[in-house]
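Chapter review: from sequence to fold.
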Amino acid sequence: MLLIEKKIKQFSKKYSDYIAIETSDLKITYKKLYEYTLYLKKIFTALNKKNIIIYGEKKLFCILAILGCLFSGTTYIPVSKSVPLKRLKKIIEKTKSDILINCSNTEIKLDIKKINIYDLSFFEKKFIAKTYFKKKIKKNNDIAYIIFTSGSTGEPKGVCISYKSLEHYVIWLNKNFIIGPNNSCLQYADIGFDLSVADIYGTLTSAGRLYVIESEYDKILPARVIEEKKINHLVIVPSIIDLILNSNELKLLANVKKIFFCGEPLTKNHLKQIFKFNHNAVVLNAYGPTEFTCSCSSIKLNNNNYKQYLDYSMSFGKPNKGISFKIIDSVKKNIGELVISGKQMFNGYLDQKKLTIQKTLKKKKKKYYKTGDIVK
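The token string follows.
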């Protein structure tokens, strides 16, 4: 049984009445979370599909569908509602998916004959799978999810992440970004952005409460939600702090315990402003390309130590356990391209063998991913 499933099953008994996921209008306990995902596991297992696309802005339903896919051994492909339909069609073609779970408020129409679109709604019971009662067939699938990013040509590029890489990352999260019972975490990132991997799994595998932002209004003014819903853990990109600063509401983060940053450079000013209103906050500054399962390095910062780890931007720390960094093609001493090896490495780009070869190299029998990032 997958580690994520084991944890949620355990919490469904130990913390049965604790809130697992909350939105502005819905709450789901750990007991109900396990029931819903177990139901979906049976459906997705019976469907016996290798890939299923999960689409839309109703992120609570997206998360349930994601967990159902994981538990059934089905690869999920998360696609945000903001993705244009032309790009969505390309993703469907590339993944050869014939099922799309629509977790949005509106009906979706695609002029693709082979795609079946299902509306996922437990409360209105609209989700119907005629193949539910078919004989269970064991899948041979080691890919947990595929996240699409744009390549240099603008064409969708599918990054394949294995169950092993995801499990390794979840274990790291449980040891380094502990949320735990009676604590809460903001789910801000779109499901098509891999930072959502950190807040969803980091919270639900530690018995925390995941508060999911779904409305555009709450996205523009997240500090108000953080204060009102008593959220004390954040997983965000640094520019969200700029957004909160612009609305003059950073003081509303006074009771936040931990902030996990990734995806953009973290600056001195970001931390200076945070610690101005919250002296006790702990910041985990992380780094990682999508190809290395969300993040693969981190450093713990606080009000007393952050200035010593500053250069052009804040340090992103040391590699996670089981991961190693090297600098190649040095332009100056200790400055060059960062290459990464280790247990969170992707399984390659979907149906792009040539690109996969271009972006990897071997050194002393180790396989490295070439990030293209120049570091010091």
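Two observations follow directly from the output. The two ends are 41 Å apart (CA to CA). The chain has eleven helices and 19 strands.
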